[in-house]
Amino acid sequence: MLTPQYDYLSSLDRTEYYSSLENKTNKPGHPSFYQNRHLHRLFHNNFLSPTEDFDIIGFHIKKHDYNLILEELNIWERYFRRQHSTERKASREALKTITIDDCAGRIMEFL
Fold first, then answer.
1. Cβ contact 82:28 at 8 Å
2. 64 - beta bridge partners?
3. 3-state secondary structure of 26
């Protein structure tokens, strides 16, 4: 069932993915991170890999590589745990207005 998808994905051009690795744009925080993770998924054939077993037609049975999927989910978890840049900017601006006489109160109010 997954053979046509695997064949299509494995036939795609990989140069754009290799370029993203060379330019280090495949890291969280980079503006094109999402697009490059998509390239990463395509590079790994949507985490499909052939097994040693054959189906009734004679093709290798394909299955998902759960270790690669887990790695990808861990990357996205770290990505979404990060505080958004607008929140960081607002926090910096709020902390700039703090005066020394009420520093503890302002920090508690902010938290």
1. yes
2. 48
3. coil
Q: How far apart are CA 80 and CA 33, in angstroms?
A: 12
Q: Which helix (H) or strand (E) holds 22?
A: helix 15-22
Query: Which stretches within 1-84 are classed as H helix?
Result: 3-10, 15-22, 33-43, 66-81
Look at residues 79, 61, 62 and name the one whose alpha carbon lies nearest to residue 71: 79
Pairing of strands 60-64, 48-54: antiparallel
The residue with tokens 């109010």 is 109
pLDDT in tens, the chain (111 residues): 566 666 766 776 778 777 877 777 667 677 777 787 878 887 777 787 878 888 778 777 888 889 988 988 998 888 888 777 788 788 778 777 766 666 666 676 777
Degrees, nearest 5: CA angle 90-25-34: 70
